[in-house]
Amino acid sequence: MQKIKLSLFLLFSSATLFGQSTLNATGGGGTIGANTYDYSVGEMSLVSTFSSATVIVTQGILQPQPISPTGIQSSAISKDQLQIYPNPGSTIVYIQTSFLTAGQITVALLDAIGRELKYYEWPLNNGIEKHAIDMSHLAQGNYYLNINFNEQQNTYKIQKIN
Description:
- This protein folds into two domains: about 1-60, no CATH class; about 80-160, Macroglobulin (MG2) domain (Immunoglobulin-like, Sandwich), CATH 2.60.40.1930.
- Helix content is about 10%, strand content about 45%.
- The model is unreliable at about 15-20 and about 70 (pLDDT under 50).
- The chain is mainly β.
């Protein structure tokens, strides 16, 4: 019995040693010259600082967002270029495109936890077309459409009702 108590004590005490002890109340960032700065309010107290002739790094909980190594940022599909209806829907959901150019559109139907259920790929000859997605076989709930067109992408939440 003593081994079990000691094991449980070590398990619970070690789990709290590495936990974050504060929540950021606010934060932000900006660019000055060629340098990008991020800050947060509500970080843990200063633990340690490492520095060289050109860089100072202070340990904390703020984690910067990754930047694409190529510098290419994907752009989102605007609302006037794509309509998804009816939402909520019971059997068929339509995707109405209004793009200015032709291209290839890909659509992934995902469940609520991100598993891919269906994958569609259509050529858009003039950019203005309508496609149907059959959802009659799916259970009632929330689903997502991940849509890509010519380096533009968006994810849309759709609801299946009976």
